TrEMBL record:
Matches recorded under SUPFAM superfamilies: Ribokinase-like
Protein name listed in UniProt: Carbohydrate kinase PfkB domain-containing protein
Annotated GO CC locations: cytoplasm
Carbohydrate kinase PfkB domain span: 264-328
GO molecular function, one term: hydrolase activity, acting on glycosyl bonds
Organism: Asterophora parasitica
Spans traversing the lipid bilayer: none
């Protein structure tokens, strides 16, 4: 269910009408006397984003609705204010509700950090955010900003990093993975060396105490998933008995606490002509969320994880090829 406040204005009525036409539920919309959230964007001739301006003040009204419905998974993005995000995350952590965070942009990506800082003191050992989907720029921003929020000096961070105990074997596997081509079908896309040279793998691992599953969108270089599976979760997961296979694009490491750390690359799908890039990331996340609702343990099973990443990439491609931010074809995909 999409939960969102809408104003009693022309934009609000348009959103309600088009959502109904897509066959989606409307009971998650909250009528408000504030302005409907609006984002205006300027695109270049290739469909790329040049600049934009947004009005998102209305979003603070969602917390009471989440408390009312008590969902299994709450997805939110960086358009929310840090205070709203903090309140939502605190509620979810206290009530065992998984949180999915979409950073939205480099600037807005750090809006989640105050919530993480507060949540680390609620429940130690468990990542406050179950899922996040940064691109490589947002990942770097999250990593560099974590120190300013004292996150990397928190005892919970040190405890997890020490227990993971990633050593020379992990580094050797990573170096081998980095030599793989991005695509077996198109060698011109280069190798996965960016995992090491740009620090993508290292940053992802060091953020795992805060984000249990990181789905890193790497553009033309595909998708990288970094995740840690706790000891109880690992008992029923095929990952618990798998060994690293860099030739098959994944690394598996086991720490002192019997947690399992996985780093896996998913090659990019063939895109074709790009018309509009503005909704590709949202389409990717939307498809991934739909998969998680159907298979909550998808990340703990290699085959299900592969299916989820394929569906998410296909959804993004449909929107890349559409003149609308989100392709109408997704409603029937």
């Amino acid at each position: 269910m999409l939960v969102s406040p809408v104003g009693d204005d022309a934009f609000g009525r348009l959103l309600m009408e088009e959502t109904a036409q897509l066959g989606m539920r409307l009971d998650g919309f909250i009528q408000s006397d504030q302005r409907t959230a609006v984002c205006n964007m300027v695109l270049d001739s290739a469909g790329g984003l040049v600049s934009g301006v947004a009005d998102m003040d209305i979003t603070a009204a969602i917390i009471s609705h989440i408390r009312k419905h008590q969902p299994q998974l709450v997805a939110l993005d960086g358009n929310l204010s840090p205070d709203t995000i903090k309140n939502v995350v605190e509620h979810c952590v206290r009530h065992d509700i998984k949180v999915f965070f979409e950073p939205t942009s480099v600037i807005k990506s750090t809006a989640i950090l105050p919530a993480i800082a507060a949540a680390l003191d609620i429940r130690s050992g468990q990542a406050p955010i179950a899922f996040s989907s940064p691109n490589t720029y947002e990942l770097a921003q999250l990593f560099s900003s974590a120190e300013s929020f004292d996150l990397t000096s928190h005892p919970a961070w040190w405890s997890v990093i020490d227990s993971l105990a990633l050593g020379s074997a992990f580094r050797a596997d990573l170096e081998q993975l980095a030599r793989k081509n991005v695509s077996d079908l198109d060698p011109s896309k280069g190798t996965l060396s960016f995992l090491v040279q740009q620090g993508v793998a290292q940053m992802a691992v060091k953020l795992l105490p805060f984000f249990q599953h990181l789905v890193i969108k790497c553009g033309e270089q595909g998708v990288v998933v970094a995740m840690r599976i706790s000891e109880p979760e690992a008992l029923g997961s095929p990952w618990a008995v798998k060994d690293s296979q860099p030739s098959q694009r994944f690394i598996v490491a086991r720490g002192n606490s019997k947690e399992v750390v996985i780093l896996q690359h998913f090659p990019p799908h063939t895109i074709g002509d790009v018309v509009n890039v503005t909704g590709a990331g949202d389409s990717f996340v939307g498809a991934l969320l739909a998969n998680l609702l159907q298979y909550p343990d998808a990340f703990h099973h290699p085959t299900k994880l592969n299916d989820a990443m394929c569906a998410a990439q296909n959804a993004a491609i449909l929107s890349l090829q559409s003149h609308r931010a989100v392709s109408p074809l997704l409603s029937s995909a």
